[in-house]
Amino acid sequence: MKTLLVTGGAGFIGGNFVLGTIAAGGCRIVNLDKLTYAGNLDTLAAVADDPRHVFVRGDIGDRALVERLLAEHRPDAIVNFAAESHVDRSIDGPAAFVQTNVVGTLALLEAALGYWRALDEAGRAAFRFLHVSTDEVYGSLGPTGRFTEETPYAPNSPYSASKAASDHLVRAFHHTYGLPTLTTNCSNNYGPYQFPEKLVPLMIGKALRGESLPVYGDGRNVRDWLYVEDHCEAIRRVLEAGRPGEVYNVGGDAERENIEVVRRILALVDQRRPLPDGATREGLITYVKDRPGHDRRYAIDASKIQRELGWRPRESFESGLARTVDWYLANAAWVARVTDGSYRGERLGAA
Fold it and tell me: 159, 227, 298, 328: which is the annotated catalytic residue?
């Protein structure tokens, strides 16, 4: 049975990866998570007592802790999800993003390099360091074209700048030291267990409560949407068959304007929780001042991972969004517990 050291495995994407990987069998996971506001053990309740899952609370920047975990558990791979990830929060406080996403990733890479160098020849050949990143490092697209793995980096927010720096460090550790790294750059994820500050769960919650739905600018910003379970399948496939040193873009081939996403969410909520008078919730939409430095359009060209590794998303945007709305309606208790008072659905990043 392979052992994976997964960082950030109590967060949204990391938590889904842990749950899906344990369910698929064949892997033991050591899960290192700092449990900041977006990390929550409730997400991992299904594997809390599973002997294949070992949870450790800690920071990827704690070099001594990471080195101890590597020596004790002897993982076959490291999968790095750990990151501060919300653009609006990065506008309000960029320093935390640099500390975790850049300094923390560097510490993790240094520990991984020392561990990898001490392995025997077969262990070094089999070991992988997979770094999970974002399409936001590429900047903003015009009305046409898609990001490829060769697109120059042009980050426009403190969050994307910090992720770009971490991507470059991962690349450098491969080319300078030979560490067998893999990087994935994904489009906008949505699905179960996402912290309610992000667009999809925020709009679901506000629609259910009858609150105003804030849409930035004219609502015409475009994102490529990727169902989180499809993303986790892609990561497992890259870990299994990706070529060391390579980058793989992961997208859902589901470009949608933000306003279209919001209206689709409202339609799904109206179907499942109709208002007493039969009215729709579309009147809750309110256009607000745009986010500073708001990228206009993202779109991922995922042809490389499709061609080389045979991965394709299973969910369409419509089917994935319906599954997501149904999950949040069925898991109101999870939302209530993770929203512990530090976040109340207020706007962030307006500075």
Answer: 159
